[in-house]
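Example record used in the benchmark description.
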Amino acid sequence: MKFWAHAVFAAVLVGSLASRERSAEAPVAESALGSVVLSLARSQGLNLREYRTSAANAERIMVFDVPGCPRPMTVILRSATFEDEATTEPPPGQGYQKQYVYFDRKWDSPRPWAVSIQRMKYSLLALLGRTDYASSSLVLQVEAPRECPAAESIDWRPVWSRAYPAVAEANARKPL
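Model output (structure tokens):
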């Protein structure tokens, strides 16, 4: 009986130390997500056209030219709670599709409960050391022309990768 008690105690100790070590790793800094998005977009062939500021709130909107598309695509970092949804920009323009992206999921309308489930899932997986993604309180709002299949094929998952910000920073330092 004593052996089992010691074994359980040792397992709990090792598990808590491992989760503490794992949680001590710096997640994606939310202030740096904009530069990560920019670097990722560039790595997938997009060109930054301009930054815009939303009239309804202080969001910074990135406008990208997508190769092979006649009109630009916009990307906005939004709160995962979608509390500001009522005060944001009007619906996308004619022929544009709005999507909300978080990790490997895309939604056509705000789904705070779905984002919460994904945040919990990836937080737990990160504690267990089973994912390279870091949860965040921000999602991407992507508005792209419907006639632009290249925009649909962009893989946004690295935005939340624990490793990608370091890669993005190293690439940003390289001369053009």
